[in-house]
Amino acid sequence: MTTWSWRYERIDGTEPDPARSQTFPTQSDAETWIGESWKELLDAGVDSVVLLEEENEVYGPMSLHPQS
From CA 4, how far away is CA 57, in angstroms rounded? Predict the structure, then answer.
């Protein structure tokens, strides 16, 4: 079964702890979760995320900072 997750990134290139999110059964579930959780991640020091299907990058990095 394929799993989806988010890799967390900081602007300075260091990895936050944890460096990845929980896993999700579908891309839609992962995208819904990030839509609900991005503010908490940003507050925890995560600047951007990359969507992963297993170990393969699907898209990103996607900034969590609001656009001005």
Answer: 10
Domain membership flag for residue 58? yes
For residue 22, give the 3-state DSSP assignment: coil
48 within some domain: yes
Instruction: Give the amino acid at 57.
Output: E
Contact 51, 59 (CB under 8 A): yes
Domain hosting 52: range is 4-63
- Alpha carbon distance 54, 43 (integer Å): 26
pLDDT category of residue 7 using cuts at 50, 70 and 90: very high
pTM: 0.91
Encode pLDDT of 19-42 as tens digits: 999 999 999 999 999 999 999 999
Q: What whole-number distance in Å separates Cα of residue 40 and Cα of residue 47?
A: 11
Domain membership flag for residue 68:
no
